[in-house]
Specification:
9 helices, 196 residues, Tetracycline Repressor, domain 2, elongated, mainly alpha
């Protein structure tokens, strides 16, 4: 019987992160269907046996990545107040900035995996749905209006993050997020004023 790795062990965390980052990096170059365990192991600087100690295959790494992003984002949303006339509009973006800055290499790959639109779309849809659920749990807004507003906000926000992650990063991400915050939440406040 196969023994599962202790997920709190520092070596396990480091190896899983190496696999995840290698996977995200490969996704910027090729389709998920073309990534092999051998190639992924080589990129992560581990052997195939070590890979199989953690994952059954490439698609399980993708699933694990989605779960990790989902859990991290759920933590970000905790305590965010979506109110009519949001007075602290910057709180969500500050938390997102902290998340991206905690692992810029990984998020740089995730936000630039243009060849894997299905997986990239899954990540974006996951973030939008979690935001929508949190927002509609606090304010009364039609679901269709929330969808339009969040599509607009997330498209712009992700475009700016992609640009920052692929640039020389001479601007501080917190400054970039501050501008995004003002633009995004000024727009959301307008939606709240018109539709709530």
């Amino acid at each position: 019987m196969k023994t599962l790795p202790n997920l709190n062990d520092l070596r396990v965390i480091k190896t899983r992160r190496a696999i995840r980052n290698a996977f995200a990096k490969l996704l910027t170059k090729k389709d998920i269907n073309d990534i092999t365990v051998t190639e992924l192991s080589r990129e992560a600087k581990i052997n195939r046996k070590t890979f199989y100690n953690y994952y059954s295959g490439v698609y399980q790494v993708a699933d694990d990545m989605l779960v990790e992003i989902s859990e991290s984002y759920a933590q970000i949303l905790k305590g965010v107040k979506f109110e009519h006339n949001m007075n602290r509009a910057d709180q969500l973006l500050k938390r997102m900035t902290t998340l991206v800055e905690s692992d810029p290499e990984f998020f740089g790959y995730v936000f630039t995996m243009s060849g894997n639109q299905e997986l990239a779309s899954s990540i974006i849809e996951l973030l939008k749905e979690k935001t929508k659920d949190a927002m509609l749990g606090q304010i009364e807004l039609e679901s269709r209006v929330a969808d339009i507003a969040l599509d607009f906000v997330f498209s712009g926000m992700l475009s700016v993050y992609q640009h920052w992650l692929t640039s020389d990063r001479s601007q501080k991400l917190s400054d970039v997020s501050g501008v995004i915050s003002v633009m995004s939440f000024s727009g959301l406040n307008g939606v709240f004023n018109a539709y709530v």
